[in-house]
Amino acid sequence: MAVTSMQKFKSYQDGCEVTLPGFVADEPICVKLKRVSMLAMAQAGRIPNALLTAAAELFKNGINLEKAQDGEDFKQIAETMTVIARESLVEPTYEELEEAGVGLTDTQLLYIYNFCQTGVDALKSFRKEQESDADHRDGASVPKKAKRTNGH
Fold first, then answer.
1. SS3 call for 116
2. pLDDT tens per residue across span 117-129
3. Distance CA 115, CA 21 (A)
4. Which residue intervals are annotated with compositional bias (Basic and acidic residues) in the record (predicted)?
């Protein structure tokens, strides 16, 4: 295996296209995300001190809202996920969404967080669970009695 070129490393910062659940059912949106490091964000001071405990918990255990002791814990998790989305959105940027008055949904924030932690492959299996059966197999599973259309 060859050493990865510096140009390839730099290209990762350009992000990749990721499909997120849309604002309306069955209308996904496509954004460009880059994977960010929570450790690097913390080290660079891009995670506010007040959120470091929540960020550490997310890093250590992932999203586990059952462990949230109170509303303040929940608020810190939400703020931490917003910081992650702000850092990872390449196109549109988080600031562009804010300027347009568009807020991300909880599900979109979860997708962005999962992408940052595990990459796009983890989202594929998550999406499969939510896809509808668009084919519907032309009524193959409908009992014959229900298929009659002439009332008999």
1. helix
2. 886 554 454 444 4
3. 13
4. 129-139
Peptide bond into 48 cis (omega under 30): no
| Residue 72: exposure state from Cβ atoms within 10 A (0-12, 13-18, ≥19) | exposed
- pLDDT tens readout for residues 19-78: 999 998 889 999 999 988 888 888 888 888 878 888 887 777 777 666 666 677 778 888
Instruction: Quote the pTM value.
Output: 0.69
Closest by CA position to 105, among listed 85, 129, 132: 85
Q: Give dist(CA 87, CA 106) in Å, integer.
A: 17
Q: Which two tokens stand for residue 57?
A: 């918990």
The pair of structure tokens assigned to 46 is 């891009």
> Which value, in Å, is the radius of gyration of the alpha carbons in the chain?
21
Q: Are residues 15 and 91 in contact, defined by beta-carbon separation less than 8 angstroms?
A: yes
Instruction: Enumerate the domain spans of the chain.
Output: 17-124
